[in-house]
Amino acid sequence: MENNHIEQQYRDSKDLCNYLMGKGEISFATYIDNTYKKILVLSAASFFESTISKLISEYANKVSGTDKRIVSLIEQKVVERQYHTLFDWNANNTNAFFKLFGDETKNKVRSQINADDQLKRAEKDFIELGRQRNLLVHKNFAEYDVNITVDEIYSKYKSACNFITYLFSVLDPSFLKN
Questions:
Q1: CA dihedral 52, 163, 140, 153 (to 10 degrees)
Q2: In whole angstroms, what is the distance from residue 156 CA to residue 154 CA?
Q3: 44 with 157: CB under 8 angstroms?
């Protein structure tokens, strides 16, 4: 569940920094590295927001049957411009999000995540990228320093994509039936 544009941004950042370092342009390379860190964080978080918002809408469509009024309500009051209120970005888990789907869903999800170290890491990386995005946007983008490397951001992005893939199964109407 990765995004080709983010993959390309990562490769471009590495190629450009390597090129500049090869030319002895250390200050330009540092500037490009710092800029791409911000771009990658925002790109990853935006990709996740778009994907999860679409998943929520699709889920609502599937379970609403022929009466789509609830879909409209969910899209207007839950999905549009409300995405970042669905998660507790200061927590180290996604319990707040899954609790919105009821305790049974939250408990099943928590059990599955706790039983899978890769999924647990993916959840933490997803939250960390969302937290970094919020800091960038709300703490003066121009001056905020993302304190992890481009490689670490990319690694967290790749890991968090596993969490997004997992969401496809959770936001399937048959999730609680299995």
A1: -140
A2: 5
A3: yes
Per the structure block, which two tokens stand in for 70? 């609830």
Enter the tokens of residue 138.
Answer: 């709300």
Distance CA 9, CA 166 (A): 24
Cβ neighbours for 103, distance < 8 A, ≥ 6 positions apart: none
| Dist. CA 3–CA 44, nearest whole Å | 9
Query: For 94, phi and psi rounded to 5 degrees?
Result: -110, 25
Query: Tens-digit pLDDT profile for the chain (178 aa)?
Result: 789 999 999 999 999 999 999 999 999 999 999 999 999 999 999 999 999 999 999 999 999 988 889 999 998 888 887 898 999 999 999 999 999 999 999 999 999 999 999 999 999 999 999 999 999 999 989 889 999 999 999 999 999 999 999 999 999 999 998 7
Residue 130: CA count within 13 A, CB half-sphere: 26
